[in-house]
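Quick one from the shared queue. A colleague (R.T.) flagged ABC transporter substrate-binding protein as missing a structural entry in our internal table.

Convert sequence to structure tokens.
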Amino acid sequence: MSSGNSWEFTDDRGHPTVARDHPERVVTYIQAGATLWDHGLRPLGIFGSHHDGDDPDPAKAGELPLAGLRSFGAGGSLDLDALYAAEPDLVVAVSYGGGQVYGIDPEAAKHLEEHLPVVVLDVGKDRPFEGIRDRFSALAAALGAPGEPATRELARAEARLRDVAARPDAPRVLALSAAGPDSAYLARPPAWPDLRALGDLGVGLIDPAEGAGANWRTVDWSEAAALEPDVVLADARANAAPPIRLRGNADWRAIEERARIVPWNPEIPGSHRAHARFYDTVADALSAHA
């Protein structure tokens, strides 16, 4: 919100972030930038995480057009000097809990907050899907978003997915990230707000066996194939091995033959519109397999 000539927003750490004027030049973590774009706000520039390379990851960008959008680097390669030289009014980052800025080195995050107003929003496992949406909607409104959140579009997509998931013999869904030709990371649905939301809507999610790893269970492809998923949500980010690298593995080929493979972005934008698109994608996959 604005007060006089200043702007203030309390982030998910409980920190009141204050800017001298209403922020118009906003630099964001790519997921946050994609979210604000869905609200009608274009960021000045973006930065990525340690998982990213020199170029922004299109899978993380959602509908955010990357052409002509400035990137200030990713992870340990974040160019703070270039970021400061761009003179942003505000930086929007995300956290996976504990208030720690995700995606960049702690010293860089500390340095950033010493020089610029920073808002940090929590997208971690302790935040429900709708809570992530609500917080980004509040930030977008405070930044002067031109329109309302796509609540009707989301409600329609939720109702559709709930209906498809309730059908007899509905497909079983496994979410994973390909580590390489020999192994995979199987997602634990309770650790992911988007997967928990699918479960709440009735989608039959496969939860891997207990073992090491809070968010993922590392397995070889034979163990993944033995779960016999009907639909696979496959991590489409640049840090995941693409399907073409897996084709030499017989167990992956067996999964491909049995299941419908659907690209999945574990860092989905936190907007009503993006979540509606996600639900529609899953509903399409469930319907196609039936």
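The chain has a mean pLDDT of 94.
The first helix runs from residue 30 to 38.
Added to the table.
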